[in-house]
Write a structure and sequence with these properties.
- It is a single chain.
- This protein is mainly alpha-helical.
- It has a domain at 21-78.
- Helix content is 77%, strand content 3%.
- The protein has helices spanning 10-19, 21-62, 68-74, 81-119, 125-276, 336-345, 352-426, 458-524; strands at residues 290-291, 302-303, 315-320, 326-332.
- A hairpin with a 5-residue loop joins strand 3 (315-320) and strand 4.
- Helix 4 packs antiparallel against helix 5 (125-276) and helix 7 packs antiparallel against helix 8.
- The longest helix is centred in the middle third of the chain and has 152 residues, at 125-276.
Length: 525
């Protein structure tokens, strides 16, 4: 695998491995070819060792001085040591038989010469005796030669017997070695099968790890999407908070201006009352201010309503908040005739009771506005603190993200280097089998290295370990992101609960202020 993707960056490697099925098929074929290559190399080594053993057997059979190429060029006319031994043994037997026949012939010739000397007393007896003696000398010399040749042949025969015994012992040793080598080959084949099974298991694990990696990448994309949505929500909330702060400030300034206007109106009314000092018991001007507190629009409106009804009916006006609470309630019963007279006499003066009532209403409104202003200022300060805290958290999150990206880049570089090193270390491991010692000619037993069959491609193990480490790091990152999201949600929930509590406190205080004003009004009347 590292040879195929050594020119690519680690990110493109991950993309190709996770997206392209052809690359996966090629990787599987590459692994199968690597396994076949390892098996063929093991077979070649075993064949080389068998060839060396056969060469040694031939040298023991033929001899060290004879050239094998010369034997091959003779075309089958050469005889081995066993055939030469048999031929020499036959020659020795023939010579022994000839020697025995010559001895018997010599004895028979001596007897015949004695009989001839006894029975025949010819005048040429001396010549015959001399001839016989010459023949006897010749025969004795030939006999001595034959005996010496026989001794030499016997020595050669003994030497050949010794060599034959040595060759038999050597053949036995070689047969034992062949048996051991066959058993070792069988064990190596079994180990090769186990190694093939192990390679299959590792390939399955690699596929599972690729699937897990794809799942984790999908989860990472989902987490990024959720993080972006949360950041957008935080930005929108910050914008809404800033707009709320601006609106609240405008509301506070408007209410302060209204309070100042009301104070000026009260002062003007008091001055007019002091100047005119006219009885105004016949006419009353019912007025009422309605305070509607709308939390969606955050603005206050003052309205005054005057209704004419039949005699005995009450003129009532209410100030209701957006939460549904009755804030101010005031009433004055007037008949149509009194209303008409009051309108005619309004040009002369204003009743003190109505002025007092308006003053109490204005005071209650002023107190409510002050309470709302204080609470809204607290809310503004709290929102500013939250915005600052969220900005700090955002900076910390960006810094952590940069650190994580830097670490991931370093880990990817290390992973690429490890894969390249693994591929380089796999090449020289194939040539380690050439340095094995040869078999000794003295009959020493040479055993194969069983660990040579377990030479698996290390890129598989290195890549699986690196992928496991990468998956563990990604899992930890996902856990950290989930924890950060949980903390962000908890903080937002806490902030909303605090805002709700503050709004409820403000509403309750405003309600108490208006209830106190109503009680005071009822006590006065």
């Amino acid at each position: 695998m590292p040879r195929v993707t050594k020119d690519l960056s680690p990110k493109t490697k991950d993309g190709l491995l996770s997206d392209n099925p052809e690359v996966k098929a090629l990787q599987e074929k590459l692994c199968a070819t690597n396994l076949k290559l390892v098996e063929s190399r093991n077979q070649i080594q075993s064949v080389k060792q068998e060839l060396k053993m056969a060469h040694k057997v031939l040298t023991n059979e033929v001899g060290d001085e004879i050239n094998l190429q010369h034997l091959l060029s003779n075309g089958g006319h050469w005889r081995g040591r066993a055939e030469q031994i048999q031929v020499l043994q036959k020659k020795v037997r023939e010579l022994e038989n000839q020697l025995r026949q010559n001895i018997q012939k010599g004895q028979s010739s001596e007897q015949s010469t004695e009989e001839a000397t006894v029975s025949w007393h010819l005048p040429g007896q001396d010549k015959n005796v001399a001839h016989i003696r010459a023949m006897e000398k010749e025969r004795k010399g030939a006999l001595e030669k034959m005996t010496s040749d026989h001794g030499v042949l016997q020595k050669d025969h003994e030497e050949l017997k010794q060599r034959l015994d040595g060759s038999k012992a050597r053949n036995k040793v070689l047969a034992v070695e062949v048996k051991t080598l066959k058993s070792q080959i069988a064990t190596l084949l079994e180990k090769g099968k186990h190694d093939d099974e192990l390679v299959g298991v590792l390939l399955k694990q690699q596929r599972q790890l690729h699937e897990v990696l794809d799942h984790l990448s999908q989860q990472e994309m989902k987490s990024k999407v959720t993080e972006q949505s949360l950041s957008q929500q935080l930005n929108s909330e910050a914008q809404t908070h800033s707009s709320l702060i601006v609106q609240l400030r405008q509301m506070v300034s408007e209410r302060e201006a209204k309070v100042k206007e009301l104070e000026e109106e009260v002062k003007q009314l008091v001055q007019k009352e002091q100047q005119q000092k006219m009885p105004t018991s016949e006419a009353q001007y019912p007025s009422n201010l309605t305070h509607v507190d709308s939390f969606g629009e955050h603005s206050l409106h003052r309205t005054s309503t005057v209704e004419d009804e039949t005699a005995g009916s009450l003129l009532s006006a209410r100030s209701v908040s957006a939460m549904g609470h009755i804030l101010v309630e005031s009433s004055a019963a007037q008949s149509p005739s009194t209303l008409a007279t009051g309108r005619n006499s309004s040009m002369n003066g204003i009743d003190v009771n109505t002025l007092q009532l308006q003053c109490t209403q204005y005071k209650s409104l002023y107190q409510a506005v002050e309470v709302e202003r204080d609470k809204l200022l607290e809310l503004v300060s709290l929102q500013q603190k939250r915005v600052e805290g969220s900005s700090e958290k955002l900076l910390e999150a960006e810094r952590k993200l940069q650190e994580v990206r830097r670490r991931s880049a370093i880990l990817e570089q290390q992973l690429g280097k490890a894969k390249l090193d693994a591929g380089k270390s796999h090449d020289p491991s194939k040539h380690n089998n050439k340095n094995k010692p040869n078999l000794s000619s003295s009959g020493g037993r040479q055993s194969l290295n069983p660990s040579s069959s377990r030479d698996l491609p290390p890129a598989m193990a290195v890549s699986s370990d690196a992928q496991l480490e990468e998956l563990n790091t990604r899992l930890t990152i996902q856990m950290d992101e989930n924890g950060a999201l949980k903390t962000a949600l908890q903080s937002t929930l806490k902030a909303k609960q605090e805002d709700l509590a503050l709004y409820q406190d403000m509403v309750s205080q405003v309600k108490q202020i208006f209830l106190q004003a109503i009680r005071q009004h009822k006590d006065k009347h």
